[in-house]
Design goal:
By secondary structure, the protein is an alpha+beta fold. The chain has helices at 3-13, 30-40, 42-63, 110-177, 182-216, 244-254, 256-276, 301-307, 326-392, 398-431, and strands spanning 68-79, 91-106, 282-294, 310-318.
């Protein structure tokens, strides 16, 4: 193969579906993360493979409606060691050749029920794929929100460290001037070191969350991620929530796990019909042609084939009389499977209700917590400024200043936590109403 031909083949591979790799975005916002994960996630891919396998089974089930055709060729050597015949007549070679067909005309509707079952299983697997996609979308959204939370936490700790360094430097000047004691200055220096440690911890947490997102996206360990940090407004936080019952009723109609569970009941009912078909007779049509030859005769090979040429046609009815309880047991198991599927459907509904209720509670409580935390931050900031001014005037000691500063840091972290918990809960409520998740 010359070099030009090799280049053409390699270029053509880039356009074969499934071989061309999906282009990675330069920066990763939530939508690009979800879109990429849905194409690359291993569990989603495996679910799609299972669907293709099910479709093959459906084609196989449909093919059972048609006749089967087979050909046979046999060659046999026979020896007669105790025969009084001459040595060359003590053994012979026989050949048989035939073509036959069999066609099941009636078997109680078992084949038709099998086809319907397979078609429902194909549909159920499509819902399973949707559920797998939903799971990865929720996981991506949660991890992405954790990255946003970790990023803002780093910003808060960075600002806190800058303030601590400024206060430590100012305290050093006061200590040199004799305005504060060495102990006060040491406490300010120690607080600065603590804030630096908190910043390092926050940065490590951010890096860890980015790593989790990379793993969800099936990215290589050497690849870097530039995550988009949106400027979220209070509209994303304090958005009005729909009625909880409305959300639940909508989710019952759109969530794939509910649809799949409902189909399982229909599949179980068809299995009962398939099992009952075992009580009915099976009517089959068969036909064939054949011929053969035998050595040691006075007839030529072609003459033997013509003389032994035969045709046959017939109908066979198989009537079940006693099947060692196989049919009865199959029907009883199918009925139990129907009950189990119905219970599983109820359980799936209850699990969905539990999920929606928990998310709704998180959303409402987080909104209230955010409002309260925001007011607390405002009040603590005012108190902190006053204490800081009084400290440098010698009216407050170091412990009082550091206590107020830590109170402010805690208040900001609580507001940040309630902020992103609210945004996540609101987006998940939208998700369970079949609305797109949008963070911008």
């Amino acid at each position: 193969m010359n070099k030009s031909a090799l280049i053409i083949i390699l270029l053509s591979l880039l356009y074969i579906p499934g071989i061309r790799s999906q282009e990675k975005p330069l920066v990763w916002d939530l939508k690009s993360c979800i879109d990429y994960a849905l194409e690359q996630n291993i569990q989603v891919k495996k679910s799609k493979i299972t669907l293709e396998e099910n479709k093959i089974d459906t084609k196989t089930a449909k093919a059972q409606l048609f006749p089967s055709l087979s050909a046979s060729i046999s060659q046999n050597y026979v020896n007669y060691p105790s025969s009084d015949a001459m040595a060359d007549l003590k053994n012979s070679y026989a050949g048989n050749y035939g073509i036959s067909t069999t066609w099941t005309l009636f078997n109680g509707g078992k084949r038709l029920h099998t086809i319907k079952q397979q078609q429902l299983q194909d549909k159920a697997q499509e819902f399973n794929i949707e559920e797998a996609e939903d799971n990865i979308e929720i996981a991506i959204t949660q991890t992405y929100m954790e990255i946003l939370y970790a990023y803002e936490s780093v910003q808060i700790n960075q600002y806190t460290l800058e303030v601590s360094e400024t206060q430590r430097d100012r305290a050093r000047e006061l200590y040199k001037a004799g305005a504060i004691s060495q102990s006060d200055y040491a406490q300010m220096d120690a607080q600065c070191s603590t804030d630096k440690y908190q910043l390092v911890t926050a940065q490590a947490n951010l890096d860890g969350k980015k790593l989790e997102l990379k793993q969800l996206l099936e990215l290589d360990i050497t690849e870097e991620m530039d995550v988009v940090i949106p400027d979220l407004k209070e509209d994303n936080i304090l958005t009005p929530l729909p009625d909880k019952q409305t959300i639940y009723q909508t989710s019952l109609n759109v969530m794939p796990q509910i649809k799949s569970s409902l189909l399982s009941i229909d599949i179980a009912k068809l299995e009962e019909k398939r099992s009952k078909a075992g009580y009915y007779p099976t009517l089959s049509f068969n036909a064939g042609i054949g011929t053969g030859n035998l050595s040691g005769t006075n007839y030529l090979f072609g003459t033997q084939l013509w003389n032994k040429f035969n045709e046959n046609i017939g109908i066979t009815m198989s009537i079940p009389i006693y099947s060692n309880r196989e049919n009865k047991s199959a029907v009883q198991k199918a009925r139990l499977q129907i009950q189990d599927s119905q219970l599983e459907y109820i359980n799936t509904q209850k699990e969905l209700l539990k999920t929606v209720e928990n998310i709704y509670l998180d959303a409402t409580s987080s909104q209230s917590q955010y409002i309260a935390a925001k007011e607390r931050v405002s009040a603590v900031e005012t108190s902190y400024r006053l204490v800081e001014e009084q400290f440098f005037l010698g009216m407050k000691n170091t412990l009082e200043l550091l206590t107020e500063k830590n109170n402010l840091l805690t208040a900001k972290q609580e507001m940040l936590q309630s902020k992103y918990m609210t945004i996540l809960s609101v987006q998940l409520l939208n998700f369970y109403q079949n609305k797109p998740i949008v963070i911008e």
